[in-house]
Design a protein that fits this description.
This protein is mostly beta strands. The structure holds 1-methylethyl 1-thio-beta-D-galactopyranoside. It is an enzyme of class 3 (hydrolase).
């Protein structure tokens, strides 16, 4: 005998989007209809399976007094019930669509509420859920309202007939796993719960239902045409434009258009018999024309980021201030576009994009990436049974967000392979909204899409595409190109941003890209600081691949964001300054330069000696002008001199204060004079010690011991760095996992053989061979010390031996230990932040100061970090160090080996010494954690090298 278990939960594994919900419509906040937020503390009971408990809890009178509480919006796994799971693309359950595991954490949520005393007695009411992961069934006052899937999409239910003045019982059963989970395999934490708002909306008789604001802009006539289609007839007024028309009627007037650079919104009102709805209208026209995405007649260049919703304590339950923080940070870092990877965001985020000005690719809540493991067999997007669910998702996104001027492209989803379901979505979207373009990266031939989009293509390939030499279908060849993901910002990096930007600006077909990604999804955790995949005992996980953002989990900008800001700045300063002019270019697409004020300053040895304002013509987009610099100040003091020019905000703006820096450039005037030390002192051998000028050395080993009163230990050649995530690369591209190669050849366990300690008349020379066990490769390394009596100069010569051709060096320099009291660091060189050969654009030449702790970049998974580039001199722990040539400077309270073995920040504890690194070279960073490695010009090849440092004690 066989029997089927509980059929009452069949909906969980049903491919359909659900039953009972109202048709999707525009999301808006009414001016006058009452609403009641049901956010707050809800009673909560977790059970291990979908049917462990019956639904009697939904009955009025049920006593949930002994249940726990969770806050809504929220994820129960971040509130002490169960644990989050992180997988990139693998489904954390057996792939057997649409079946899900019997072990299916199910959260029963219960909330009893009264209506406010002034709640209107007429009309209806709607209960709106803005986001529930992944499947919910609900009851109001014991009546079953239905169930739904589509986690990051709104669902509304008509409930007016069920409401009572007081004691309403809203019961919601949420299942972590459902058929919908197969459609939601995004690279992120699996976080069940009611994670967006729950709201009860009064619907007066004659209220607005759905409406569609069509607001186009004719860039030739300068006129905008407004037409508001509304399910319920009414009037539309826009006072600033003297508009007062019936719904459905077009009206054309002269307007200021909306763009991300000039986000002009007109306030309006839609009035029906029963309701007033505020409108914020932005006039703009998006078209595909001449193979370009054009807005208001102009091709746009996306300087974008991929934004997941993230908060280190609340997961994807974001409050308005967190959303605003994202938008402000983006605007302040010159970012002009967001792809809402990989689902429609909280609707308030799009309001902010309208208001502050960001182009948006609004992406549907759809990813089936895990099916790649079975060559996409059974992929729901190519199976007609799932098509209603896909169309439902497309409609819920488009209908909800269609009135946002910021949304310029709809995206079908991410990494879902190809199939008829996607085609159906694209057709439906094109039919419903002809005023925007359709994007989907997986559609490699652009069968259904209006833009050719790729992720992580190398610079070389992007250049081929830019030149139109990439081939592909005829349709694709006529389309513009974007990188919907590039520059994987995991850990230290991304490297190569400036090189991508140069390509975007060189080829018209390339319309920019979206850095992957905005924020590290680290979870605040007492044990680790921030937790990542595997920290919750997941049986399958993808480690810290979830921490790959331009901002840390707490939204502190990482050096990658500073680099991106520099690379995409809206004003370029070029030329060499030597002829007394600098070329200023307006790199914006729409605005002139009138929002910016310009300044010059003149530095000698990094110190500003004079500054003033620079007058720059307002320049139309794309236009350049040669601007005259003042006469250079007479007093060069024989030092290294340069101009710095900057563009800052001329006045307060909604997103940044007056004087907020937006762009800069530097132009050398007189070159640096390298330090010179006359070798006038000679080494003097004592019994145990050799002295040379201010320095003393171990007589047997030639090892440096002191410089003046400063003790120095273990000074020696260093080639090892704690591999970055990009050095570690990705499993699917082993060939560029440099750290594998480095470890294989033992660069982390180099041995230092002492060959000779030679005392000459004017130099102490220590000859060594630095090499790993088991291999023939080695570095013949000579340390030559000279002194003028006050200072001591070390010249390091390195000659590779053996075949190093396939093996770049992680770094090449020296390291040494100083007393732990060393703390304050001052330097003249690149700063204020870290920089490596291919992440150096934002490194500004100047005088900088920090503490040792302040030099560290807190990558969630510890790795090489904190180098300052182009350093002329640095001071630390009583020592002054001058480089010839300039060097990378770093200092930390732990060794490279400790940094290498740490998995979380909490594994790093200060030791007895401060370890200083002076590097002649660093290997580039690249983005091989998902994408190309460093470009060849940033490889640190093992080649003969010579570099010097002059040490003196600071008196
Ligand atoms: C790409 C995904 O679209 C994105 O969600 C994220 O996983 C990113 O990679 C890496 O962090 S897919 C890529 C592995 C081809």
């Amino acid at each position: 005998m066989s029997f089927r278990t509980n059929t009452a939960i069949d909906y969980v594994e049903d491919v359909s989007p659900g039953t009972g919900a109202l048709p999707p419509r525009a999301w808006y906040a009414s001016s006058d209809a009452a609403s009641l937020s049901l956010n707050g503390d809800w009673r909560f009971r977790l059970s291990g399976t979908a049917d462990a408990e019956d639904d009697s809890f939904a009955e009025p009178g049920y006593d949930a007094g002994d249940w726990a509480e969770v806050s809504v919006p929220g994820h129960w796994v971040l509130q002490g019930h169960g644990a989050p799971i992180y997988t990139n693309h693998l489904y954390p359950f057996p792939v057997d669509p649409p079946r899900v595991p019997t072990e299916n954490p199910t959260g029963d949520h219960l909330r009893v509420f009264d209506l406010p005393s002034d709640w209107p007695s007429d009309g209806g009411a709607v209960l709106r859920f803005d986001g529930v992961e992944s499947c919910a069934r609900l009851w109001l006052n014991g009546t079953d309202l239905g169930e739904f899937k589509g986690s990051r999409l709104p669902h509304e239910f008509a409930v007016g007939h069920l409401l009572k003045p007081s004691g309403n019982v809203l019961a919601v059963r949420v299942h972590q796993w459902s058929a919908g989970s197969y459609l939601e395999d995004q690279d992120q934490w699996w976080l069940p719960g009611i994670f967006r708002d729950v709201t009860l909306l009064h619907r007066p008789a004659g209220a607005v239902l759905d409406f569609f604001v069509h607001a186009s802009y004719d860039h030739v006539s300068g006129e905008g045409t407004l037409k508001v289609d509304s399910d319920v007839d009414g009037r539309v007024t826009v006072p600033a434009l003297d508009i007062d028309v019936a719904t459905g009627e077009p009206v054309t007037v002269v307007v200021e258009p909306w763009t991300a650079e000039t986000p002009k919104l007109y306030d309006g009102v839609l009035v029906t018999e029963g309701e007033r709805v505020p409108l914020r209208i932005g006039f703009r026209t998006v078209v595909l024309e001449d193979g370009r995405i054009k807005v208001n007649g102009k091709a746009v260049l996306f300087k974008g980021v991929n934004r997941h919703e993230w908060h280190p304590e609340k997961g994807r339950a974001l409050d308005l201030e967190t959303m605003r923080a994202d938008v402000l940070l983006m605007k302040r870092h010159n970012i002009n576009a967001v792809r809402t990877s990989h689902y429609p965001p909280h609707p308030a985020f799009l309001d902010l994009c309208d208001e502050y000005g960001l182009w948006v690719i609004d992406e549907c809540d759809l990813e089936t990436h895990g099916f790649t493991e079975q060559a996409w067999r059974d992929n729901p997007v190519d199976d007609d049974r799932w098509t209603p669910a896909l169309l439902d998702r497309a409609a819920r996104m488009v209908e909800r967000d269609k009135n946002h001027p910021s949304v310029v492209l709809w995206s079908l989803g991410n990494e879902a392979g190809t199939g008829r379901g996607l085609t159906a979505m694209a057709e439906w979207i094109h039919g419903r909204d002809a005023s925007r373009l359709v994007h989907y990266e997986g559609d490699i031939n652009c069968r259904d899409t209006d833009v050719y989009s790729r992720m992580y293509a190398s610079h070389a390939e992007v250049e081929q595409i830019g030149r139109g030499l990439d081939g592909g279908t005829l349709k694709r060849r006529e389309l513009p190109f974007i990188l919907c993901e590039y520059a994987h910002a995991m850990g230290n990096g991304p490297g190569g941003l400036a090189d991508y930007q140069r390509l975007f600006e060189s080829y018209e077909r390339l319309q920019g890209g979206f850095v992957w990604e905005w924020i590290d999804h680290g979870i605040k955790d007492e044990r680790y600081g921030y937790a990542y995949g595997g920290d919750f005992g997941e049986e399958l996980h993808d480690g810290n691949f979830v921490c790959d953002g331009l901002v840390f989990p707490d939204r502190t900008p990482s050096p990658g964001l500073a680099e991106f800001k520099k690379v995409i700045e809206p004003v370029a300063f070029t030329g060499d300054g030597s002829d007394g002019t600098v070329r200023v270019t307006n790199r914006q697409d729409f605005a002139d330069l009138s929002a910016f004020a310009f300044e010059w300053s003149y530095q000698v040895d990094g110190e500003t000696v004079e500054s003033g304002s620079l007058s720059v013509p307002t320049l139309t987009p794309g236009e350049s002008a040669d601007v005259k610099l003042p006469e250079p100040p007479a007093d060069n003091r024989g030092g290294e001199a340069q101009w710095t020019v900057r563009a800052v905000l001329a006045a307060d703006t909604p997103w940044g204060p007056k004087d907020h820096p937006v762009a800069w450039g530097q132009f050398p005037v007189t070159a640096r004079v390298s330090p010179s030390v006359a070798a006038t002192a000679g080494p003097v051998a004592g019994e145990r010690v050799i002295t040379l000028g201010p320095a003393s050395f171990d007589a047997r080993t030639g090892a440096l011991r002191t410089i003046g009163g400063v003790e120095v230990n273990d000074l020696r050649l260093d080639v090892w760095r704690a591999p970055t995530d990009n050095d570690d690369g990705a499993s699917w591209q082993d060939d560029i996992c440099y750290s594998l190669l480095w470890r294989k050849f033992g660069l982390h366990r180099m041995r230092h053989r002492l060959d000779a300690v030679e005392l000459g008349d004017d130099a102490l020379t220590v000859r060594t061979r630095v090499a790993p066990a088991a291999w023939e490769v080695g570095l013949a390394t000579v340390y030559r010390w000279t002194s003028d009596g006050d200072r001591v100069k070390l010249t390091v010569s390195v000659a590779p031996e053996g075949d190093w051709s396939a093996l770049p060096l992680p770094r090449l320099g020296i390291r040494f230990g100083l007393d732990a009291g060393a703390d304050l660091v001052r330097w003249f060189g690149g700063g204020p932040g870290e920089a490596y050969p291919d992440t150096k654009a934002a490194s500004m030449l100047g005088r900088w100061e920090s503490t040792v702790d302040g030099l560290q970049t807190p990558y969630v998974r510890p790795q090489e970090n904190g180098a300052r580039a182009d350093v002329r001199w640095a001071e630390i722990g009583g020592l002054r160090i001058e480089g010839d040539p300039e060097f990378f400077f770093g200092a930390r309270r732990w060794t490279t080996e400790q940094l290498d073995s740490a998995e979380h920040r909490t594994d790093l504890t200060p030791g007895e010494r401060v370890w200083v690194s002076l590097d002649h070279g660093q290997h580039g960073i690249g983005t091989a954690s998902c994408g190309p490695g460093p470009l060849p010009q940033y490889h640190l090849r093992a080649e003969p090298a010579e570099f010097s440092f002059v040490f003196s004690e600071i008196s």
